[in-house]
User: Which sequence fits this backbone?
């Protein structure tokens, strides 16, 4: 449960939000969609990426983190666990920070999803779910917006790190910078990269104007392969 720890009024404070995408997942290697039911966590490369990220924080060149949060999905939790070996803050979990909920597609290969339901929409359709039983883009972005607002409100004047997902980072990026839900531009956020936002604001109020400090900072991955080669899998079912 979130507890409001905001400082007293009449002062200006800075709140920082560090968003870290999880390490490479088993599902990515297998080219599958993995939600709460089927996420199998990190691949061997994903664990190495998370260890590199933890080493980066251990070196003391990153902001001092006051709170560590995570999505409940194993790939995010395992990334947070690697970080907490260094940060020693304990991990708070918020179910509302999980990736776009895939409904009936949970566990299916990408090719099978396209074979059953066609290509994902790229136009302005945001209120209708693409996948049966899944979330619409509008519902997903609303959920993430509420969760991040509550998290920030509970840690005003502090630095919060969230181990999460590419879709979560895309949503926060759009909401903080005033971009539309879908505008023909997609972010491609690297595994374990750091995206940082900061806001200086009245202590008694939540931030209303955020500054993008950096996006997709993955300097710690230098020398690692960009990805694990896709697992060999049979052709999609007709």
Assistant:
């Amino acid at each position: 449960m979130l507890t409001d720890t905001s400082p007293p009024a009449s002062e200006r404070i800075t709140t920082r939000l560090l968003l870290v995408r999880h390490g490479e997942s088993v599902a990515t290697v297998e080219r599958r969609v993995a939600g709460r039911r089927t996420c199998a966590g990190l691949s061997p490369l994903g664990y190495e990426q998370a260890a590199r990220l933890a080493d980066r924080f251990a070196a003391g060149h990153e902001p001092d983190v006051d709170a560590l949060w995570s999505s409940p999905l194993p790939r995010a939790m395992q990334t947070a666990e690697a970080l907490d070996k260094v940060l020693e803050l304990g991990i708070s979990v918020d179910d509302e920070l999980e990736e776009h909920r895939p409904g009936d597609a949970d566990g299916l290969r990408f090719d099978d999803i396209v074979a059953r339901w066609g290509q994902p929409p790229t136009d302005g359709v945001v209120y209708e779910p693409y996948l049966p039983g899944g979330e619409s883009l509008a519902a997903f972005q609303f959920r993430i917006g509420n969760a991040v607002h509550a998290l920030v409100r509970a840690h005003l004047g502090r630095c919060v790190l969230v181990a999460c997902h590419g879709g979560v980072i895309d949503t926060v990026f759009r909401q903080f910078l005033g971009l539309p839900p879908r505008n023909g531009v997609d972010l491609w956020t690297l595994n374990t990269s750091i995206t940082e936002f900061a806001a200086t604001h009245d202590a008694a109020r939540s931030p209303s104007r955020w500054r993008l400090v950096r996006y997709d900072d993955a300097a710690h991955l230098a020398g690692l392969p960009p990805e694990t080669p896709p697992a060999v899998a049979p052709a999609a079912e007709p």
In short: Confidence is low (pLDDT under 50) at residues 232-238. The first strand starts at residue 12 and ends at 21.
